[in-house]
Design goal:
Helix 7 crosses helix 9. The chain is α/β, with parallel strands linked by helices and 591 residues long. 51% of the residues lie in helices and 12% in strands.
Length: 591
């Protein structure tokens, strides 16, 4: 309907241009918005105020001219001027009823569009270090990123979903060393596990699997390993250095095992965790088009290519034996090291190369979904793109705040290093995928989320996912009742379309208005990258349906009225299903 009203206004302006009342070379930016108050009509447009200064006319007078030249439309009942030059449009009942035709015709495609014109977009999300299982914080990023990708695809973008696997760097070395030390325990040795190692049970399990396959092939005596290693910082020795301790252990592991055996352990731990992450996300309804390896950037010399590109643009310099990127020149708070004095490139250097690679692969828009703790990283990544002569505006970063889990009123703690964390798998097991997906995207990503487990599991109207799913199941129950009815009632959607003019009570008109909003909500959620708009809309639609259900009977003796009402709730069921599909929530037929 917005596009229809916009077309009417364009025709009005064209008539005024033909008559010489408006110049021909106008740049039109016609914005049609749904009104917030029904007393002011259904839609409003401020084009007169936008053009008034350009054409040097009074905006209200200009609005009057637009209204005077508007073509007639069976969907517009009347127009009114408001304020300094707003044009308010009141729709006919036929316009509201038309949405039923659209839903019946388009079915699962209702709400989709070609807005994106197949522009290539990459959405990269989660990308958690493969050093342990995903926790509930990662789950929020997974749900948010997946729905952003779904929304963009729904409005016509060519979307690719990607997970960036950080399979290089110090954290992975800490994991490999942690696995090896636990493996030594399976070999019968007694060890002192580092305070800065990965302590979760999953590390013990990986070590057990390693021992089951390789036996004692990688066994070394712990007393030999610990020789010359910096003391750990523990309660018994506060003078120690836990960071230096774990780094020394890593170096000992590499030296004693040799490159080949160390790589076997490294890859074994990495692959086990990646397999677990893939399974966890897959069960959560999150499937990627690409799992991109950080290590591949180094092996294929893409990192070197990126650094050379920065060098060619005079954006790196040498200091104290290290190579520094002039990120402060591009708005960052200080310059950043991209290659250490030992010749190793930094994680940031890999990230620069990775984002260059994204654009080199033909994506014209790249969307990164990061944890809010990475907010300081945004300007330096943008700076690197600008420094290489690339378009930093192609990068959009969505920062997802932490999800704080409450169980029985107590906040759950989570830390992948301590092993004390609530996993995404545990959350899904407790509340189910549907509740997890729905609750995760109910708020804007930049807002903190207090995840109430008791509410998520409750079967009550206060639980939003239950409330929405119950609306869908209720509609299904009505059609089951039709099938079992002793009066042999039948429902034929094609003939029912002839009767929809009978839908005229306040509940029906409100439900029709809400259905008509769905394509607008999808487009707005996609354009603004705001998945939360969908669950909020679904709650509103469910509320309109439940009110209608409680106020009127659908299975009435009057054939025409019965078919009209059944067609309306059938359309409602379809839109509920479409919306829930976008956010990855099931639409149950029975509850």
């Amino acid at each position: 309907m917005k596009s229809h009203i916009s077309d009417l206004i364009k025709l009005s302006i064209q008539q005024l241009q033909k008559s010489g009342d408006l110049p021909d070379n106008l740049v039109l930016d016609i914005v049609v918005d749904r009104t917030k108050d029904a007393r002011h009509g259904d839609f409003s447009c401020n084009i007169a105020m936008r053009l008034a200064k350009t054409v040097k006319q009074n905006p209200r007078k200009l609005a009057q001219d637009f209204v005077r030249m508007l073509p007639s439309s069976k969907y517009i009942e009347k127009t009114e001027l408001a304020g300094p030059g707003f044009i308010n449009f009141y729709l006919t009942t036929q316009a509201l009823l038309n949405v039923v035709h659209e839903v019946v015709e388009q079915k699962s495609r209702f709400g989709s569009s070609l807005l994106g014109n197949k522009e290539k977009v990459q959405v990269e999300f989660v990308s958690a270090n493969p050093t342990g299982p995903l926790h509930v914080g990662h789950g929020r990023g997974a749900a948010h990123g997946a729905v952003v990708a779904n929304l963009l695809a729904e409005v016509g973008y060519d979307v690719s979903k990607e997970y960036y696997v950080n399979d290089a760097g110090r954290q992975m070395d800490i994991l490999a060393t942690s696995v090896w030390l636990r493996y030594l325990e399976h070999c019968g040795d007694s060890i002192v596990f580092p305070s800065n190692g990965y302590k979760g049970q999953y590390v013990v399990d990986i070590a057990a699997d390693l021992f089951a396959i390789y036996g004692a092939d990688f066994s070394r005596l712990f007393v030999e390993i610990i020789k010359g290693v910096c003391a750990d910082e523990v309660s018994e020795n506060p003078e120690g250095d836990k960071e230096a301790h774990i780094d020394d252990l890593i170096n000992k592991a590499k030296a004693l095992l040799g490159e080949k055996d160390y790589r076997v352990i490294f890859d074994f731990g990495l692959n086990k965790i990646i397999e677990d992450i893939k399974q966890d996300l897959g069960e959560f309804g999150v499937v990627y088009d690409e799992w991109f390896s950080e290590r591949s950037l180094v092996d294929s010399k893409v990192v070197d290519k990126a650094l050379q590109r920065l060098l060619d643009h005079d954006c790196v310099y040498e200091k104290d034996g290290a190579l520094w990127f002039r990120s402060s020149k591009f708005g960052d708070e200080k310059d950043r090291v991209v290659k250490r004095d030992n010749g190793q490139t930094t994680y940031f250097a890999s990230d620069i190369a990775y984002h260059m690679n994204k654009l080199d692969r033909g994506f014209t828009r790249i969307i990164d979904v990061w944890g809010a703790d990475h907010h300081g990283y945004v300007p330096r990544v943008r700076a690197s793109l600008d420094a290489m002569g690339l378009d930093s505006n192609a990068l959009e970063v969505l920062l997802v705040q932490f999800a704080i889990l409450y169980r029985k009123g107590k906040k759950a703690q989570m830390s992948t290093r301590s092993g004390e964390f609530v996993t995404l798998r545990e959350l899904r097991s407790e509340v189910g995928n549907d509740a997890a997906r729905f609750f995760y995207v109910m708020r804007k990503c930049e807002q903190h989320l207090d995840f109430d487990l008791d509410l998520a599991k409750s079967q009550s109207n206060e639980n939003p996912v239950f409330y929405v799913q119950y609306a869908h199941a209720r509609i299904c129950s009505v059609f089951r009742e039709i099938a079992d009815n002793e009066k042999n009632y039948i429902f034929d959607s094609s003939t029912a379309l002839e009767s929809i003019a009978l839908l005229d009570n306040s509940h029906e008109l409100s439900l029709l208005t809400c259905l008509a909003r769905y394509p607008e909500i999808v487009e707005s959620a996609a354009v603004n990258l705001e998945p939360h708009q969908i669950p909020h809309y679904l709650r509103d639609l469910a509320n309109h349906f439940h009110s209608y259900y409680n106020a009127h009977k659908f299975i009435v003796d009057d054939l025409a009225l019965r078919n009209a009402r059944l067609l309306l709730i059938s359309a409602t069921r379809q839109v509920l299903s479409n919306g829930m599909s976008l956010i990855g929530v099931s639409a149950p037929e029975v509850m």
